[in-house]
């Protein structure tokens, strides 16, 4: 809960807590050291994440207490560094004479202390008890019953953490609705073995309390140290709906739903910069470094500041910079209303796991029986048909829409959808890799067997059962955990040396050691199935070569042949130099354009026509004809028509000046015959590109009237094309105006 909270920690500091923790495996640590590490994690969480949480500490099982039983170390208050330091120093104290403390006496006093502190305040009340259960108690069953009623009245949540104590208890079996498992748990608790008689008595009383306080008390036997750590490193958040609205199934049916965050990416807190020039202040609101932005014109030598209101965004368009103000930018954005709409259904097998691109949200119906039944019916139907739903989701107005998958989920008490974002075509990147060598059936079988053996969810145990090695609810966020640990360490020690991460958490993050032992045989088969060859890289020799070495490594004939080759090469170079100077002197250069390209065809055509060193007129006319036809044939909706018309005009002009009028007139008849039904010919008619008359060039046999009549003799389809083209130009001019 992210609101106000009061937590009292009851820590047993008797001699039994200084004994070695039996479930630690290879890690040699005492029960008290483990308890102190757990409490340190909780204090870190409170300091970093919960400013309204108050924490207190009570020690029991110590002779230093005034009544010989309980000692108040920290009253209920907001935790600070001194509190964290005091808890860290607890294992360094001397071992007392008492084996353990009275659990129920300390619990009774803690409940009264919480009741007196909270009174009428609205805050959640919690108690954590950490003990090995070896302390003697004076409480009877009658007093235990009275304590149970007091706990129910005050409404306290109790977490009882047993260290090497009540290891036979299983919370999953403690369910009266499952009579067989519940009876088996009772028999197990009655026949369990304990280190001493006090543990047996305390176990019976604690088990009695948890049966009566099912909503207020939980037992956590620390069979695995990491499960114990998980009770302290988790960060609880207040559930708030990120979306509340209608889930539109079709035009007539909609369901009112709520969307909650199931999981999200956690980021480290931002670190503020504090100035070291001023006097050090413990107040976090002082000595802040503030950044001021000043805008100025880089061409202004005086660097005169410019107000932010006088600054506008500019977007590059070719070589020009187009200014766009905020109003215009808002208008150009995609305006999308808030929406949650069903698109359709697909088989679940059609969406692989690697398509999930974001965190998971939970979709539930609002607290209305009709709405809940409607959503439950859709969930159950999708589960029965093994399908998932696809939907369009826009959480807020003017945000980008998302393609999401609704994965149906049915639990014991409710039905819901898991909402997961899916990628679109724009999100997929195709990487070009070289083709891999095809694997053989034995290789595929070996890899498949290795994957099955290394499954973290189904690891066989000694009793033949299966165990999950990597339970996410027991895994701390290593980045956030280590960040908090480093900050706390530096705040206390003032040292720049980074502390190592907790070995228990680090070991649980690497369960592969146990997996490797189990999959050893499968790994050997994979190694035998794939034969690897070492790619030997030849070492590069010394690049420096001496004349003596050359004469020693080569014979006289080889040296003579090399000398002759070098002489031939020198003669060729001299001949090329002579030819180059001769060409320059005579005006022959290699920069003559001999081919018309498609990038700038008119420029290439002019150079070939006007070339004086070589006659390229005929070649240029032949090539320009091919280029025009190429532009027309390859045009998409007339995209290259303008270039073709420019080339045709340039060809007509050149044929007039070079006395090649018959060539152009013949070519224009070819264009008319080939493209008379296309818009391209309509554009020729519209721009008046006609035959060359005998007035323009004496080599032409076409009169002026014949040239004009060549364009006027068009059928109805030609006129329609011309009219259509004129209307398009008029519409375009109207839009520009």
TrEMBL record:
Keywords: ATP-binding, DNA damage, DNA recombination, DNA repair, DNA-binding, Helicase, Hydrolase, Nucleotide-binding, Nucleus. InterPro entries: DNA_bd_Ku70/Ku80, Ku80, Ku_C_sf, Ku_N, Ku_PK_bind, SPOC-like_C_dom_sf, vWFA_dom_sf. SMART domains: Ku78. Gene3D superfamilies: 1.10.1600.10, 2.40.290.10, Ku, C-terminal domain, von Willebrand factor, type A domain. One of its GO terms (molecular function) is helicase activity. It is found in: Nucleus. One of its GO terms (cellular component) is Ku70:Ku80 complex. This is Ku domain-containing protein.
